[in-house]
Amino acid sequence: MRRTAFIVALLIFVSSPAFAADDPMARAAKLLGKRYYSEAASVLKPKLRTIKPNRRGTAHLTLGMIYLRSAELHRELYRTSASVQLDYLKKLAASRLRSRSRFVDLYYGEALIEVGKYKKAEASLSRFIADERTNEKHRAIANASLGLGYYLGGDEKKAKALWKGLQGKDPEVASSLAAAYSRAGLTDRNPRALAEESLAAQKKKRRRPSLRLLKGIIAVYAKEGLTDKGLSLVSRASLDKYSYREVIRRNKVINFYDLSLLRDLSKLYLQASIASLKKAAADAKLKDTANYYLSEAYALVGNPKQSAEVTASFIAASKMPPQFRDRALARQAANNYQMGRKTEAVGMWDKLSKKQPEDPELLAEIILACGRLRVNCSKVIRKAAVSAEKGEGKRYFPLNIALGRYYYGKKDYSRTITFLEAGRDKGNKNKIESNDPVALVDLAEAYYQSKQFSEALEIYFEMSKHFPEVRQIQEAMQGIYSIEQKSAGDVKIF
Amino acid sequence: MNRKLLVLLLTLGMISAVSFSADAGSKRDGRPDGGTLSYGEYGRPATLDPVTSNEMISLRLTELIFNGLVGINEKQEIVPELAKSWKISDRGRTYTFFLRKNVTWHQKEGAGEAKLFTAGDVVFTHKIMMHPRTITPLKVRYEFIASVTKIDDYTVKFTLKRPILNALAKFSFKIIPSHGPSNRHFLTREDPFAQSPIGTGPYILKNVTADREIILVANDNYFKGRPHIDKFVAKPFADQNIMTQALMFNAIDMIVLVNPRDIPEIQGDKRYVLQPYNALSYSFFGYNMRNPLLRDKRVRKAFTYAVNRKEMLASFFNRQGTIISGPFAPGSWAYNLAVKPFRFNPEKAMALLKEAGFTKGSDGIMAKGGKKLSLTLKVPIEKESEAVKRVVLAFKNYLKNIGVAIKVEFKEWQSWKEDVFLEHDFDIIFASWVFDDSADISSLFHSAEIGSWKNNFGGYSNPKVDSLIVESKLTLDHEKRRTINRKLHALLADEAPYTFLWTLTNYAAYHKKIRHVAIHPYKYFSFADDWFIPSGSQK
Which of A424, A421, A423, A475 is nearest to A450 (CA)? Predict the structure, then answer.
């Protein structure tokens, strides 16, 4: 959004006294402006200690923003991946071919646990476990997941009994078990110790840890708030790698991916964001700005109370331009709504939406809040739709995007496409430098749901250049497309 | 599809019996009829019939003039067109189509009574399409059909050599009338029918003007109901900039493919809608393996390493596209995501040429056995937009840097096609392919597709590629087909029969007065009979 761009410009300015082409803060701020979040973090994070104390607050603020945007993006990627992976795995699982995949039962089962369908997950995982061709290692991994399904489904006893019999000798098994214990919140076996043992065992073997092994460890680190350790692992991993490659026949090979990885990445980034923004807020000059973003981070983590506290502090003390104050008021209304003061919240949104001169970004903020909280803000939506239709230029892009995302939440994909397309910089339609990647992810899913697969795949093709972890979405989407497409096989010269 | 499922289908007799609510006459959907839609095209079509055509301009027009037995709607569902229903039997080997009885062929002015469409026309279309002397790229796609039998005037049965994936979709090929072509046995571009076609579709070809504008008028008797817009006019433009200006000054209402450089200007104008439609397309430099110097893959790979695609895309297309690594578009399901494009590396290019036995002569040109790497690049004149000119000249310069002399020849579209597809008289060409969703590359690289007017114009032949293509056609397993296509991608990227360049951003632009616009990503005008112009905005 434009205001993020404003802050980024501010950060570059603030970092400019010692400005040099290789100044890590300036470089990171520029990369953040281009939405190259991983690159931005990798430029700044290792240099934090070398930055002079009087500029360290700005560095923490920059890093906090980088991680916040990254967390928001990965949360959206996780949501899309859950939807696409489930569609794809369901189709694979339904195959009646003799060369049907066996591992689909493991991965479909795990994906079903992710979305809370424990009974179905049990059936799928049990099929995999019962298959006599399944080796001990994979059977143990499946049992770790099956136990988690039991536990989350309310059968703690059954889960514990199942887990008790599992040996963690194999690093991937140990890591899966650690992730299951951690997710269940149990300490009978120390998840952290299990995870680190599995990593050490793999190192001993002088093998690069597989993504399946990393997934488990990252899950533990994310749950236990071991943010730096988690991020360090992530920065060294090839996130586009499959979790398992099943070679069924010479010419039938299927790659499987871990859905939960995206969720845990989002968690790690959000924790890192909050930690960095808190450090930035300790600097009196940056307190307001840091609080502004902290309120967003707390809201994203699902903590309206803490979000309300820092938002109130920002509103009371802010020397930022008035638009930021209005936006904070809209955000505070969202916090109030979540804390049960619904009428007050809706009243505030109505009042803010009537402010003149009209501020499309303020309207966008309100609509995004309505979308996030699933509130039917019909009055504001009507007004915003009229404004978006009349409004000209890039100033109205955020409003169109907010409307698109609102309808995306309502699964009205036709309107999602209309508005998100209106807010898209068509001159650079898939470039994340020109388009908010979160909006592109929602647009891609709207196209996917409308069976316009190639539009969605093109978005991810570009995004994969900076976020290789989207490979899991790309491969699943390609799989669905290959099944769903119904064309004659035509090709023409142009 | 496994055996049990096929038996189930057989048992159920899978009959679809959807029919259209509207018969001939108005669509009765409350939307107004009338108005003219003029659209800008990149050139004029060589042929207007759906059998001999092999380019996009013709394809768009034939979509307005003809119908298939089945169609594919926006939701990727197969829907009835000339067939009102069908039955699949014999374990997916027999397709019986029950035809609509109220469909008439377009009636030309002064001709007698309009003729009825019947099963005879379906049999005729298949027969003429598969005749050895008919020049068409369709044969390879329909080799799976063993026979076609007319059961009665409104029932036709296709027997397949074997069950295939997505067989029903293949019956979307356009049906032509048995009374159409003057030669009833085979069809060539010289047949008057190729320029004056008769179809069953929503629009009738009225005439082609002296300016080569193609005028189509609404078919009042269209079986899905008369299309809303009275007249479609296809206007050819050789220059993309002029086409955009024509849109901005209201001389045309629609551009089928916007020049990437003009996107910001059109997006900034609220009179127009910019609509993405993701045709699976890419541009390439294709090599002629009949030239012994180009038969060595090291030479072809050297050319690819020598070309800075990133720089060209940035300089000539404002970065509005994506560099590709192989024979599929990145939006396709078949693209191998693990294969990365070769990085620009002129040193590696030189090394490859040396490894292939080339040495630089006193004139700076690489030579081997007395033969110089001095090659002809042929470019169709319709593609002579500024950007394309720059691309081919940049290519020439890149190759000059590694000691390869390129002579660029711009040829008129028809003459270029004859040189490339008929005479095979070229060393290198610049062109683009556009694919439908099936991403079928078999006609491009299978050795059986070498010959006159066939798509393997470069004469590329590789038994491994042939074998993978055949295996992918025979399988009924989607995942197996995906694996094979990924292998083909990796193999062809390494073999470099083309220098695969990029896929560009595809946008159509149209005036907001045109409503209810849905664009088919490949065929474009598939849903145009539902488009309309409000009465107050009609010209």
Answer: A421
Does residue B531 sit in the same domain as residue B433? no
- Rounded Cα distance between A476 and A258, Å, is 12
- Cα separation, B116 vs B456, in Å, equals 38
Task: Find out whether B172 and B72 touch, Cβ atoms under 8 Å.
Answer: yes
d(CA A205, CA A219): 22
pLDDT surpasses 70 at B8: no
pLDDT at B454: 86
Contact criterion met (CB below 8 Å) for B235 and B41: yes
Residue B284's φ and ψ, nearest 5 degrees, are -160, 160
Q: Which domain holds residue B183?
A: 3-23+35-249+506-537
- Cα nearest neighbour of A92 on chain B: B479
Q: What is the dihedral of CA A205, A210, A214, A217, to 10 degrees?
A: -50
SS3 B297: helix
Out of B76, B137, B507, closest to residue A486 by CB: B76
Decide: residue B385, CB within 10 A, 0-12 exposed, 13-18 middle, 19+ buried: buried
For residue B464, which residues of chain A lie inside 8 Å, CB to CB?
Answer: none
> What gap in Å lies between CA B124 and CA B121, rounded to an integer?
5
Domains of chain B: total? 2
Does the domain spanning A71-264 belong to CATH 1.10.3470? no
Chain centroid offset of residue B372 CA: 36
Q: Please say whether the beta carbons of A293 and A277 come within 8 A.
A: yes
Distance between CA atoms of B302 and B389, rounded to whole angstroms?
Answer: 22
- In the stretch 446-475 of chain A, residues with CB closer than 8 A to chain B read 450-455, 457-458, 461-462, 464, 471, 474-475
Measured CA to CA, the distance from residue A333 to residue A348 in angstroms comes to 6
The dihedral built from the CA positions of residue A459, A463, A464 and A468, taken in this order, carries a sign that is: negative
Asked if residue B32 has a cis previous peptide bond (ω within 30° of 0), the answer is: no
Give the angle A262-A268-A270 at the CA atoms, nearest 5°: 100
Cα–Cα distance between B305 and B283 in angstroms, integer?
A: 16
Considering chain A, what is the average pLDDT of its residues? Answer: 92
State the ipTM, two decimals. Answer: 0.92
Strands (E), B144-271: 145-152, 155-160, 203-208, 214-218, 231-236, 254-255
Is B261 among the domain residues? no
How do residues A197-221 score in pLDDT, each as one tens digit?
A: 999 988 888 888 899 999 999 999 9
Task: Flag whether B108 is in a domain.
Answer: yes
Cβ contact B76–A479 (<8 Å):
no
Q: List the single residue in A with minimal CA-CA distance to B520.
A: A452
Task: HSE, CB side, 13 Å, CA atoms: give it for residue A247.
Answer: 2
- Looking up residue B354, the CATH number of its domain turns out to be 3.10.105.10
Asked whether the beta carbons of residue B522 and residue A392 sit closer than 8 angstroms, the reply is no
| pLDDT tens digits, A468-485 | 999 999 999 999 999 998
Nearest by CB to residue A488, choosing from B75, B170, B281, is B170
Let me know whether B388 and B489 are in one domain: yes
Of the given ranges (A254-258, A351-355, A425-429, B334-338), which has the lowest mean pLDDT? A425-429
CATH number of the domain encompassing residue B215: 3.40.190.10
Looking at the fold, whether B445 and B322 belong to one and the same domain comes out as: yes
Inter-chain residue contact B436 with A489, CB threshold 8 Å = yes
Q: Same domain, yes or no, for B447 and B341?
A: yes
